[in-house]
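DM from R.C. (forwarded with permission)

"hey, sorry to bug you on a friday — could you get me a structure for this? deadline for the figure draft is monday and I only need the backbone to look sensible"
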Amino acid sequence: MTLVNQILKEAITQGKTSLGIELGSTRIKAVLVDEEHQPIASGSHEWENKLENNIWTYSLEAIWKGLQGSYAALAEEVKEKYDVTLETIGSIGFSGMMHGYMPFDDKGQLLVPFRTWRNTITQRASDELSALFNFHIPQRWSIAHLYEAILKGEEHVKDIAYMTTLSGYIHWQLTGQRVLGIGEASGMFPIDSTVNDYDSKMIKQFNEKVAPKNFKWKIEDILPKVLVAGEEAGILTEEGAKLLDVTGHLKAGSLLCPPEGDAGTGMVATNSIAERTGNVSAGTSVFAMLVLEKQLSKAYEEIDLVTTPTGHPVAMVHCNNCTSDLNAWIDLFKEFTDSLGMAIDKNKLFSVLYNKALEGDADCGGLLAYNYFSGEHITHLQEGRPLFVRTPNSQFNLANFMRVHLFTALGALKVGLDILMKQENVKVDEVLGHGGLFKTKGVGQKILAAAMNAPISVMETASEGGAWGIAILAAYMKNKAQGETLDKYLNDKIFCKEQSTKIEPDPRDVAGFATFIERYTEGLAIEKMAVEALK
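My reply, with the result:
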């Protein structure tokens, strides 16, 4: 065993580590970091949501199988690399795909299957609450799901004793604490950043709105308690340790930080929680987070107002669809090469095809595609149909084909960002990209620079993503000095050592994306007709 591994073995044995686990849309990832915040082991579990009774959902069984599977894979890597059984962890944090709806009764039973962020089934509730609050309430927010259930007269609503999000649910089961980090909480119900709690005026308005229903609960009684980054959020119980580690080796007592959403952990993982910073997370879904210098001039249906994990206001453009259709095409090419008897590594296939896109015409040669596996609120579609369209005189070749699918992965995002940058004149000094779209070096980064007409940086730790981000939040909670802010902790102890690559926007690409987005906007009529015609 090397000297470095011997030192890390001692750190693991002494519990000087922090663990972050993030439940993403297609993968659950666990990352263990050392005292220097460097990843020293990881584990993952692949999973996928299911469309059941027209609801995108994951079962509780799948949630626990995936969580335990990712932890087991991490523990196995610890054993292999450091010849030690993982028993003690200094601090732990859980993160998950944001928002959605998980209501429970007073016995802790889930009342309806988990309704994920991907559902666009709450339009009426979204519209009514946005008008009531004069504040945009997105369809995927927990309060929109709750109010939609009320409007539809769903029987379970009267029995709700507690409602939370996916990360909040995991945290509750492992600690007994009904809490949520403020960034994630801001996707359940609007936050007042001056007091770092739910907006009291809107709480009152909501209670008055539903008062005629005579529910036995008030909204403030069934929401999780709001915590900010750095606050302690409970300890791992004996039962919780057994739930996470089915082998029974993990000991109780680890400190847990407030559970967060993937947007908050993305901000931490890219050091973009200060004003005039931003980040774009691009995977199954895509969202941009721009930290505001001042509040927007008015409410926009396309823009969500959330917060950093420290409670600072953030403008968020969230799109349901990003790489799913792109990945499906890569799978098709993989099937083709397999059929020819060519054993080509999938990462190699991604690299070759992504880089091929850089050889295409600036505007994709007149090709058009929509990556809508599900509905997309920014373009006002409740359902999606993945589409590829061209005219007889389009420049149809592999480079343009790959380029248009990379462009369309950011198409809806571009529509929302134009509101912030052109109508509200929001300024960003730097945008950091993270997520699967940026795994192939330079390609996704170059396309995003064209879409935003802004410099895009990607850090070497970008592939670790939100699991690393929540591990950092867990480490900050346990190790911060008296009065040390999260901004200072990130700058002084983590990102001062980080290597990143920056790509400036290429004027040719910027002009090409502008031409493409005109075609994209005009062609939305085709997508709408496809939804109608293909039931």
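R.C.: lifesaver. DSSP finds 19 helices and 23 strands in the chain.
me: no worries. The CA atoms of residues 217 and 412 lie 38 Å apart.
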